Amino acid sequence: MDNSYLIETDELVKIFPMGETSVIALNHVNLMFEKAEFAGLVGPSGSGKTTLLNIIGSLDSPTEGSATVMGQKIEDLNHKQGADLRNKHIGFIFQTFNLLPVYTVYENVEFPLLLLGMSPQERKEKVMKALEWVHLSDRAKSKPAQLSGGESQRVAIARAVVKEPKIILADEPTANLDAENSHNILQTMEKINRDLETTFIFATHDEKVIQYLRRKITLIDGKVAMDEVYDKPTGHGEEQ
Amino acid sequence: MIIPRLAIRNLLGAGLRTWLNVVVLSFSFVVIIWLQGLYKGMGDQARVAQTNAEFGGGQYWQENYDPFDPLTLQDVHADIPKSMQTLIDNGQATPILISQATIYPEGRLRTILMKGIDPAQNIVNLPTQFLDQEGEDLPALIGTRMAKNTGLKIGDSVTVRWRDVQGTFDARDAKIVQIMKTSVPTVDQAQIWVPLDKMQALTRMENEASLVILAQGTKEFPQISGWVHKDMDFLLKDINLMVKSKQTGGSIVYIILLSLAMLAIFNTQVLSIFRRRKEMGTLMSMGMTRGKIIQLFTLEGAMHSILAAVVAAIYGIPLLLWSAKSGWAMPEAVDDFGMALGEALFPVYSTGLVIGTTILILVVTTIVSFLPTRKIAKLKPTDALRGKMT
Prior knowledge:
The complex is a heterodimer.
Chain A: E1 5-18, E2 21-34, E3 38-42, H1 49-56, E4 64-69, E5 72-73, H2 79-89, E6 90-93, H3 105-116, H4 120-133, H5 149-161, E7 167-171, H6 179-196, E8 199-204, H7 207-210, E9 215-220, E10 223-229
Parallel strand pairs in A: 3-8, 3-9, 6-7, 7-8
Antiparallel strand pairs in A: 1-2, 1-4, 4-5, 9-10
Chain B: H1 2-13, H2 16-55, E1 59-62, E2 78-79, H3 82-89, E3 93-103, E4 110-117, E5 138-143, H4 144-150, E6 157-163, E7 169-180, E8 191-195, H5 196-202, E9 208-209, E10 211-214, E11 227-230, H6 232-235, H7 237-275, H8 277-285, H9 290-326, E12 328-329, E13 344-345, H10 351-373, H11 381-385
Parallel strand pairs in B: 4-8, 5-7
Antiparallel strand pairs in B: 1-10, 1-11, 2-9, 3-4, 3-6, 3-10, 6-7, 12-13
């Protein structure tokens, strides 16, 4: 394996048993991602975008083939090692935000740092910095129920980015947002990608997201149908 | 330390649901401690009362004496041995002579026990000084239960008939000189107390006794031929068994209470695990292991008991202290319990009882909280994030 790749999949296959039959979600996928990429997995529903994201995020394991993330083979990781990889190197952003409802914005963002065992002082600095990135410093004490959809997703971004992971995996991050909020979110993520050199991988079929991508991987029926790299985002700024 | 912190946050964040469980559980805490304290108090009270009024510091029984065999009572008397007489003379023991007798209050026949006791004794807490009277009639001391059953009052005379040592019937009028109020039914019901010397003379059993009561604190119990030493463990055995049986009955109440509280917590846990699958998936995505999530949910459940202990302490301590001070008034029917209970029962709460109950509830709550979380061990992160149970 070339060590410059953060993520590499090699003949990756994922099959889900469905009663007596089975569904091939990923069919011999070979992909490589470098540092600071802003890439997206696009394709229709059921094309395997989320499955691939889950395997890269060590939330799932391949049926065949291999997925290597930060030098660690996902298929060889036990539950604890997978958790450790996610804890240290991977941030997740979900379509439904998945904020912890009983915690404040500050506490939600602080959570990954608690798992990392950071000191209170260090946590405070990082949380405030992350909230500044997403322009939510003034909502630190709010509960998720008091936030709009856009604000909630910005909290989720702050939570994903607060530990400054190498990789952020975003599964349909704009699906529940209106156009204006979607652009705000994407601009925030683009800035983080640029400033922190964090690799972003999206699973999306939202055109608003696609126009921000610098790499677009089209999946159809679990196979990579197209892998396009752009010098600059395809439609950046056109709809702003 | 992250798990306890998160557990507290989650628990307090759950709001009313948490507090409802906590209040129910705290109620169990208080009732269990109160009930146990009540039984302990009942046992202690009965033991003290019976020791003071009847058992003293142990007894020597004439070797054939069996208080539960009325057919042999007539013959269980023997000369008081010299070694025992020394104790009696030194005020360290008092002899009791027991004989079956019959009285005829209000023209009806009643079989009773006639017990002779030294009026000057101070080994047992009975007002025997009232027996120190001269006169034709035999002075007799009875208890309130006996007085109620026979209709006898102070100053009344009643005919007493007995058999002497030869088996010959003899009779005399006894005058009720005092009616004593005692919580100990076994020195009251169906018996009259008369002066020992007079009873010995009337029954021609001079210097004889059926049993000898030792003073409390007596340490040495030498073997005496023809007499059997009965220690306090033996004498209090019936009370201890009775208290134990009542405790067992009472424990059913707190098992029901505890079960209700546990059911509420179990239900909360099951619902919580079902409802918070997405949260679990989110925690897993942030790098929390399934083991830690199980710990978190178990601790959340177990913390109900800690909060309940705090809440129980807030209202329970004043309540329990008040009940320990003012006691629980006993109805008259309490005499039917068959053990020495006063007019009020005073619960006794020991540190062991409080700590034991707290540990019991903590352990049971933890187990009940843990059981539903076992599902998490099989939960796949991807399923959890989709809100599915694996």
